[in-house]
Amino acid sequence: MLAKRIIPCLDIKDGRTVKGINFVDIRDAGDPVALGALYSRQGADELVFLDITATHEGRKTLVELVKKIAQHINIPFTVGGGIDELKDVEALLAAGADKVSVNSSALKRPGFIDEIAHNFGAQVVVCAIDAKPDNAGWTCYVSGGRIPTDKKLFDWAKEAESRGAGEILFTSMNHDGVKRGFACEALARLSDSLRIPVIASGGAGSMQHFEDAFINGKADAALAATLFHFKELEISSLKKYLAERGIVVRL
Amino acid sequence: MKVAIVKYNAGNIFSVEYALKRIGCSAVVTDDHELLRAADKVIFPGVGEASTSMRYLRRHGLDTLIGSLKQPVLGVCIGLQLMCRHSEEGNVACLGIFDEQVKRFRSAVLKVPHMGWNTLQPEKDSPLFAGVPKDAYVYYVHSYYAAVGEHTVATTDYVQPFSAALHKDNFYALQFHPEKSAAVGERILQNFLNL
After folding, report:
1. Residues whose CB falls within 8 Å of the CB of residue B32, separated by 6 or more in sequence, listed in order
2. Of B120, B89, B115, nearest to B103 (Cα)?
3. pLDDT in tens, B116-140
4. Would residue B34 show up in a list of annotated catalytic residues for this protein?
5. A3 and chain B: CB distance < 8 Å anywhere?
6. Can you tell me the ipTM of this complex?
7. How far is B146 from chain A (nearest CA, A)?
8. Domain positions in chain B
9. Residue A53: closest CA among A22, A20, A80
10. Which residue range forms the structural domain that includes residue A70?
11. CATH number of the structural domain B3-194
């Protein structure tokens, strides 16, 4: 059976991992390749590297970093953060990335999704959506959640799918960082309305939360960052816990 | 040992090259007929659309070349599909090395593409799976599949059982991505190099 996926997310700035404390198993927690390899050994199913560098110089560093990751990591990985041109996508894929995640750039110019899917295939495009509920429903935000748009979560996810997105990575902004669980109701509605996989993001604080995301939220995969970086939860223990509760995971 | 990777208009070709490097093998990525013929092993990988890929292969004479190779050849993902008789994707005649048909997943319940880790069931003995445990997880990304047929050596169940691996004479093919399937995938690639 197809397994539910656990995906650690690493924030990258100028080619280095930000946040995260030192792990006993690796010398340098700032080295994204070493940290990614450690997660891979612990049973991560995929990795996401999110570049938070704003400069052009940092971008070049990112392509070099992706090459290094591709040389050392034997599971699929996604690269995201500020990707807004087809040539960025081409450079990252040629460097060995399996998928790219787009967020603000796609909301500002939805045709970007069509372009990537047409040129490189739908499996390459992860459409990341940051949203939070208000009086008008779930509103999508750009620029790291700072600026609201006129797009609504469920409509935008559907549109992204029809334009050729291969997966939806949904972050509930109100749940993100507060460790009280994922936005399972919205997740389930998304998953039911789409034919492509949905990755849950934002809110993981315990193993139970992952179980909820998969069962109540009907998510295909769940992503977390700080929980893994600060060693509050080890991926292998999490997967063992999920397997004991009848959720199909790769052990 | 000389290993050549077929260069054509498909994506993901370099991932296989990186994976071979990780297990200590350097390969050449080429569409040069002589280099491909002279290689000890040939890998035919890729992610793409079947009819577009077939057009490119024909234009470059790679269709007849691949079919005429005598050394071990390994098709991966769309490589497997292109080695079959016909693909529903773009309704195109393929290389016909394997007699199997390629069809699109149709399901009211399950999502398409089939994306993620799924288990491998060996159906026949194959040197590719030496040392690979039953129900080992491998990584898939695909919307089309080769039906189970006489050359199927392993299956995976999604919507229905389909060909996870095919083998006939010197031709081997995998629907999943060994280059992204962690230690299991590396073992399978190593087994192919050991043939």
Report:
1. none
2. B89
3. 999 999 999 999 999 999 899 999 9
4. no
5. yes
6. 0.91
7. 18
8. 3-194
9. A80
10. 5-244
11. 3.40.50.880
